[in-house]
Every structure is written in structure tokens, then in C-alpha cells.
Amino acid sequence: MMSKPIHMTAAVLAVLAAFATAPVHADDTLQTAPSTGWAGQNGGTKGGAGASAAATYKVSSAAQLLAALKAQGDKPKIIKLYGTIDPTTADNGGAYKDANDQAARLQIKLNSNTTLIGIGSNTKLVNANLVLNGIQNVIIRNLNIINPCDINPIWDPEDGSAGNWNSEYDGITVLNSKNIWIDHNVFTDAPKTDDQLPTANGRLKQCHDGALDVKNGSDYVTISHNRFELHQKNTLVGSSDSRTTDDGHLTVTFHNNHYLNVSERAPRVRFGKVHLYNNYFEGSQSHKVYPHHYSVGVGYKAKIIMQNNAFDIAGASACADIVTNPGSASKSGAVTDAGSLLNGAALNLAGKCSFSNAVGWSLPYAVSPMSAAAVRQSVLGNAGTGKISVD
Q1: Active-site pick, 265, 268, 270, 376
Q2: Which of 92, 295, 300, 316 could cross-link 241 (Cys pair, CB 3.0–4.6 Å)?
Q3: What is the set of domains in the chain, with CATH numbers?
Q4: 376 an active-site residue?
């Protein structure tokens, strides 16, 4: 028996056509690190992908976040954050009472096999330091991270020619960890910028440390599509010239990040095999609070490959304004560059900066960087929070 043809109205046909052509909604909660960076190596970085429904959490407080992190150990977990996560709210003990109290409550320690991801564009982490120590396979995305302020900076009279105040705690600290992807976040000192800090012993009493540091032999790290803004010493890759066990480690990729009014360490590298491509740097040597000192620090035994980055730095006129050795002249590293621009002109690292180009390694992954001339528009449109979809 033949079936009768089904007659559809124009309206029904239009709805079906819309479904057929609509883009498939990608769940960015489950996305794994792309292959175009170090985090795609060593088996890749999957975070909490594969987590059960019971290991998928929505949290809006520091207490809820800590409970979710402790639950189920190192089994895959996905933690979605919304609102403001702050360890110093009244229901969590209030403001830090002293240095010991801050150390105990400020550090939020992550587990292996975790995805930490913000919902929307306004999820904030304040008065906290995310710590990744001796773990692997972690993804952190779509968070507005307010760089913490140490309530007890320590004076070091031996730091520099006139002494300095030193503080603890970064926005994120990666220690002895592997396969880490940090993507589409914002790191900032605001609202407590350095112009609001007091002066003591003739120096700014600096309460901020790093925004994001990668240290102690960490490997397979990709830092992508973040905005770093309003900060002095942004990122260390490698903590000390004396930590020679870092040599051969600290494999880190920085790509498509926006550095806005960051004074230095973007990044500062010791020992690491570090790849920087398609990053956009924006600042001024005469900025009133965060004057630009340098961008890329080529420290002891650094092995840096740069490709197609764009530097728009008012007052900078030569490669040495951008790429420098911030440490001892006798302890330098190696760096190569292809295609980067300084204020629209070739950076000319080979001609103007006196560094070895013998980096001793080549990229273990395929990547085709966009031209440096296209970097500004692309990065401004895609870096930071609110660019990915999280339900």
C-alpha cells in the first residue's frame, strides 16, 4: 500500500530549513586544548571532559568551589562558576585577618582532570590564587581574575639598588604540573591598581605579585586568548637562575593574548622552550601607572621562538625596548623572531638585539600564524571573557 504524500505549509518548510542551516551549538565546557600549542602534546589536555553528571557542578561561592574541587578526588570533573567567587565574604570568614590567615584561605588548590570555566562574561575570582601544584590535565577558561593583593608585603633591602617590597600570590600559579590550558580569561589589578598603594622606605609598597606564573618544571602549557591588563610583573616562566632542573622543561605556548598596559614580564623566561605567536601588546612608556619597560624577557638559558606578534608601544623605537635580558648579562638565553612588528615596522630582532638565535629546538606541532598586520583586530575581537559558550 502506497503512503500518501505529506503536504507541508510554507511556514513548516521554513522552520525545517532553519533547523537544517542553523550552526551546531558547540559545548565549550567539553572542548579540549587545540593542537596548536604545547598543551596539545603529551596526549593532549582534556580537563574534565568525560565527567559524569554527578561530577559536573555549578558554583557561586568560594565554599562551593572548594567543596566541588574536593569531591571525587582526581576523577574528571567540570566546575562551572558564576557570580563572584571571593574567599573573604562574611559567610566564609570575612577579610583576611593576618598573613597566616590569608595564606590558608586565599590559595585554591586544583585537582588533576578538572575543567574550571566561567558562565557568561562577568564571572569573577577575587582575593584568591588558583594553585596548580603537581597535577595534570587542567583547563581554566572564561574567568575574570582580579590579581590578589598581599596584605603583608616584605621589605628586601638587597632587591635592586635601593631595596624593594616583595609580595606573594599570583592570579594563577602553575607548579610542577603538566598539560594545562589557560584560555579566554582576563587578569587585572583593577580595581586596586598600583596608584592606590602607599609608599614606604621610599618605594611603592607593592602588594601584587604575578598575574600568571609557570614554574618548577611544568610542561605542556598553552596560554591563549587571554587579556592581561594593568599589571607590572605579569608572567614568570621559571622562578630562579639557580633552579637548573628546569632546563629541558617549561614548555609553554602563548598565542592570541592581549597585553594592555602591562609593564614587563610578558613573559620573562628562564630555561623554557617557549613559543609566542600572534600576541598583541599595547601600552606606553609614559603610562602614569603601568609604564612599559619591556615585553619579552630573555633570561638564563631561555629558548624562545617568536612569530608574528604585534607591539604597539608608544615611545618604543627599537627591538631592545621590547626584547631584553632583565637579569645578569652573563646569564642570557636565545631567541628567534619571524614576522613581528613594532609600531607597524619590522621588529628586526636579528639586526638590533644582541641575542643568540640558537634556541636548539623546533615546534613539535603544526601552526600557521596570521600575519602580524592582522593580529590587532583579531585579538581585540577574540581575547578575554564572554567569547565562548557556557550554559
Answers
A1: 265
A2: 300
A3: 39-382 (2.160.20.10)
A4: no
